[in-house]
Amino acid sequence: MPNSEGLRPTTDRVRETLFNWLAPVIRGARCLDCFAGSGALGLEALSRYAESATLLEYERSVAQQLGKNLALLQGNGSVVNTNALTWLAGNGQPFDVVFLDPPFRKGLLAIPSRCWNNRAG
User: Is there a domain that residue 66 lies in?
Assistant: First the structure.
C-alpha cells in the first residue's frame, strides 16, 4: 500500500471483533467502505461473503492499489477514487453495512453522520 498521511489500517483485533459482531448481517450484504485507505474493512467484508463492497478512497495512488488488490481477490466490488463526503452527499444508492473510519484527527466523522441522519429523518 502506498504511504499516505493519516493512513492507519484498522488493527486485526478491532477488525476481528467488528466482524464477529456483524456476522449475522454481513453475508449477502451490500457494503460501503468510506475512507477506505488500506481497504481492510471492505475486503474483509468480501472475504466473509458480502454480496458486494464499494470502497471510496480520495488518494489516487491508494485507490489504484486498492483496485489491483480487489482484482487479485476477484471480489465483487469497486473502488471509487473520490472525496467520500462529496460522494455521500450525492449518492442515493442503498447499502446494508457502511464503514466510516476517516483519517485520524481530521474531524471528518461528524459530517457523514449528519448525511445519514438527514436521510433517515
Answer: yes
Q: Is position 114 within any domain? A: yes
Domain span at residue 94? 12-120
Count of structural domains within the chain? 1
Q: Per-residue DSSP letters for 9-44? A: PPPHHHHHHHHHHHHHHHTT-EEEEET-TT-HHHHH
- Which amino acid, 99? F
- Provide the residue type at 38 as one letter: S
Comparing CA positions, the residue from 97, 94, 100, 95 lying closest to residue 112 is 100
Q: What is the pLDDT of residues 5-54, one digit of tens each?
A: 555 566 778 888 999 999 999 999 999 999 999 999 999 999 999 999 99
Contact 11, 38 (CB under 8 A): no
Does the pTM surpass 0.90? The reply is no
